[in-house]
């Protein structure tokens, strides 16, 4: 008589389940795009060099949101800020980098709001 019990694998419940990352991470496919980040200016926000970010053009850019912006022909990922005088700023999340003022003379546009970061662990 055998006293060995057989237990199902813990993964057995998940074998039939498929995960669709587009359904989880992309709320508006027509207005969403992915970008790879280069640089360390947003490390304090958990966005590191070589990470991919998901950007949604349909979300209203508001103070405090992380955005992808074009400033005088240069693309950047920064936190959007506005001071008490109405001056717009692009703010890094790394103390090595100064805040960037957005002047009325600047060629400035916001391409979208960052919704997720796909961080590489190794």
Task: Give structural notes.
With 122 residues, this protein is mainly β. The chain has a single domain (30-118), classed as Umud Fragment, subunit A (Ribbon), CATH 2.10.109.10. 4% of the residues lie in helices and 35% in strands. The chain starts with 20 loop residues before the first helix and ends with a strand.
Please give a handful of descriptors for the protein shown.
122 residues; Umud Fragment, subunit A; 7 strands; 4% helix; elongated
Brief overview:
With 122 residues, this protein is mostly beta strands. The chain has one helix spanning 21-25, and strands at residues 32-36, 52-56, 66-71, 74-82, 88-91, 100-102, 108-118.
Topology (SSEs and partners):
Elements: H1 21-25, E1 32-36, E2 52-56, E3 66-71, E4 74-82, E5 88-91, E6 100-102, E7 108-118
Antiparallel strand pairs: 1-2, 2-7, 3-4, 3-7, 4-5, 5-6
Keywords: Autocatalytic cleavage, DNA damage, DNA repair, Hydrolase, Nucleotidyltransferase, Plasmid, SOS response, Transferase
Protein name: Translesion error-prone DNA polymerase V autoproteolytic subunit
Domain Peptidase S24/S26A/S26B/S26C: 7-114
Query: What would you give as the CATH superfamily?
Result: Umud Fragment, subunit A
What spatial form do the alpha-carbon principal axes imply? elongated
The proportion of strand residues reads: 35-45%
**Strand sequence of the main sheet, in spatial order?**
1-2-7-3-4-5-6
The biggest beta sheet is recorded as: 7 strands, antiparallel
The number of strands is 7
CATH A-level architecture: Ribbon
| Average residue pLDDT | 90
Q: How would you classify the helix and strand content by structural class?
A: mainly beta
Radius of gyration: 21 Å
CATH structural fold name: Umud Fragment, subunit A
Number of domains: 1
**Strand-and-helix sequence, N→C?**
HEEEEEEE
Q: How many helical stretches?
A: 1
Uncertain spans, ≥5 residues at pLDDT below 50? none
Family: Belongs to the peptidase S24 family.
GO biological process, one term: SOS response
Enzyme class: transferase
GO molecular function: DNA binding; DNA-directed DNA polymerase activity; hydrolase activity
């Amino acid at each position: 008589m055998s006293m060995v019990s057989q237990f199902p694998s813990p993964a057995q419940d998940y074998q039939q389940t498929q995960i669709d990352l587009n359904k989880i991470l992309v709320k508006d496919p027509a207005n969403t795009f992915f970008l790879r980040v280069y640089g360390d200016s947003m490390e304090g926000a958990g966005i590191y060099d070589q990470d991919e970010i998901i950007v949604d053009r349909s979300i209203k850019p508001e103070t405090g949101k992380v955005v992808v912006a074009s400033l005088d022909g240069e693309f950047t990922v920064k936190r959007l800020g506005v001071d008490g005088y109405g001056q717009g700023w692009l703010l890094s999340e790394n103390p090595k980098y100064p805040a960037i003022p957005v002047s009325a003379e600047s060629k400035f546009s916001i391409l979208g709001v960052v919704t997720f970061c796909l961080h590489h662990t190794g």
